[in-house]
Amino acid sequence: MTQNLSTAEQALRDAAREYHRSPNKGKISVTPTKPLSNQRDLSLAYSPGVAYPCLDIEADPSLAAEFTARGNLVGVVTNGTAVLGLGDIGPLASKPVMEGKGCLFKKFAGVDVFDIELAERDPDKLIEIIAALEPTLGGINLEDIKAPECFYIEQELSKRMNIPVFHDDQHGTAIISSAALLNGLELVGKEIDKVKIAVSGAGAAAIACVNVMIGLGVKRENVFMCDSKGLIYEGRPGGFDASKAQYAQKTEGRTLADAVNGADVFLGCSAPGVLTAEMVKTMADKPIILALANPEPEIRPELAKAIRPDCIIATGRSDYPNQVNNVLCFPYIFRGALDCGATKITEEMKLACVREIANLAKAEMSDEVAAAYQGQELAFGPDYIIPTPFDVRLILRIAPAVARAAEASGVATRPIADYDAYRESLSRFVYSTSMFMRPVFAAAKQKLQRVAYAEGEDERVLRAVQVAVDDGLALPILIGRPAVIAARIAKAGLRLQPGKDVEVCNPEDDPRFRQYWETYHQLMGRNGVTPENAKAAVRRSNTLIAALMVHLGDADAMLCGLVGRFDGHLEHIESVLGLKDGAPGFATVNALMLESRTLFIADTYINDNPDAELLASIAQMAAEEVQRFGLPPKVAFLSHSNYGTSTRPSALKMRAAREQFAKNVPNVECDGEMHGDAALSPEVRARALLDSPLNGEANVLICPNLDAANILFNVLKTTAAHGTTIGPMLLGCSAAAHVLTPSSTVRRVVNMTALAAAQAQTVHAG
């Protein structure tokens, strides 16, 4: 790798290394799903109890899906001969990529993965090794194997193995690009069987793309494919392998420019910059350009649009509209295939996936998606021909469609009996993924907001601000002594440049000091604060400065609380910013992302013993905050009592709070008073009450008092193996302001920066 790196590239390299190294080595691990806490557990997990499921599987192999993890286990297999944009780097060097693929499988669709890197280049030996893994795995995802061997390996494994085999580099790209093609053609009013397609690249991805497009109606005689030697034509000297030969044309054309001339569609799976502006000029009216080379496409969208404003263009990049990203497909096609026990991935299953992706881009935007992507115009059109990778509806639509197609193809060994129930079960993957912060980040980036940090000298803040600057989340304002900030930036090895990347407000010497203390005196003069008191208070409290900055319009949002008492910070926010119209008081909600679910717990920090009316209002504010993450809130009012089993005051209070909430917010699912296990388990709930209006798991837990909420949150936070926390999120404030806690990590500060920035946009819009 070249050593002449830009500052940004160096930062990315260092961050990537640290990400993979810390806090644990690598990105995946194996976690037991059953308790092993006593002798009985041990006797069930291993000898002698394990013998019984073993014998059952011997008698009926289909029971492996019932008694083992095989039915949810995919092997991501490579020999490292064609890795990303890195080429032939070998199996060991490819392992970080394969682990990353495993993370995507798990996070997006709940599919477990073994990454398997094989030191074998002989295709036949690879086939033997992979085929021998069939008893272990429920599916095979071939990854980063060079062409043309990848075609042969996939074909032979599909014949030999009785589980799904999928080469994502081929078929994932093919599915997404074909969906883009369908929608692009609809927008430009062209028929798929009449368009001419020019193809740059003749490797695994390009050929698979064309194969799927032909399945959708493209005519083979209208496809003009080019490799590194030029256009593939009959009789070309030197010949070509069988995978290319099927697309050899009788033509006088010899170059990519010849192929592109008059083409309706350009498909690029090749190299950066090969499609020139001059070539684009020669394309047919309203051309569709699928420039999929990554990270640098065959042509940049801005160049293509400058030459042909009538074009529709998609790339593999996330910083342009219409990203052709395989994560739109592979987690969900495997989810559906595994759940119905498919023995292979058929063409019908691929086409079902194509159509669902294409249709989703045209679907009316759901409330969840609208909330998740505030400020973005996600409407079907030239800049939105395929869905965003974080549209929560992908799994809910693709997996059932794939399972149906598998059944229709005759390859489903466990057909789905009830598709409505199946879709409901899939929602657990949507709402438990820690990717749920992504919509907030996307909203923050829409219009950069000025975020003031009261503890601007804290190293956690400085590290978080570096991320915020690099990722374009906010315009940071650090409140602190410039010399101290500069010294700590240098000590931490950060690249922040005060005055350029961040604004610095020096609490000891800022020209706005007089304006700030006079404003504070105006606000608090009738509460016993004299001018001298106001001066001293502003000098003494950076949180007060941050609140005054927001109040006076010098900042859009603020974060504080990493040092000192929560109540002290809140007092300053309350005195300067106050409550928003209609809010009965302040409250807090904390989000906790656990392995299997995400929970929002309130009120964790402010109200000692709120009455029923205040609890109902807190629940309403918390539900509104949940919607910011693109999630449908489901509210449970927790109690020691379960549906009237107690008449103690706290139980009656929670029952009344639920009734008031249901009256105020009839469109949000809620129930209570109820036990904690009933809130998270429909089965437990059903044993106590048959007609609960709450479906599935609750994700907003309203506790009867401060002690209960704070204890619940901290116990869960500490006991969760991989829990991530967001918050505390301050509810009821007139501005985007949050009080963090001394235990906050850098990641929490980053997350809260994005949240505060996203909220500030809403406040300004309102």
Automatic annotation (TrEMBL):
Residues covered by the Malic enzyme N-terminal domain: 25-158
Chain ranges of the Malic enzyme NAD-binding domain: 170-407
Keyword Transport on entry: no
Disordered: region residues: 1-35
Keyword Oxidoreductase assigned: yes
PANTHER family reported in the protein's UniProt record: NADP-DEPENDENT MALIC ENZYME
Protein name per UniProt: NADP-dependent malic enzyme
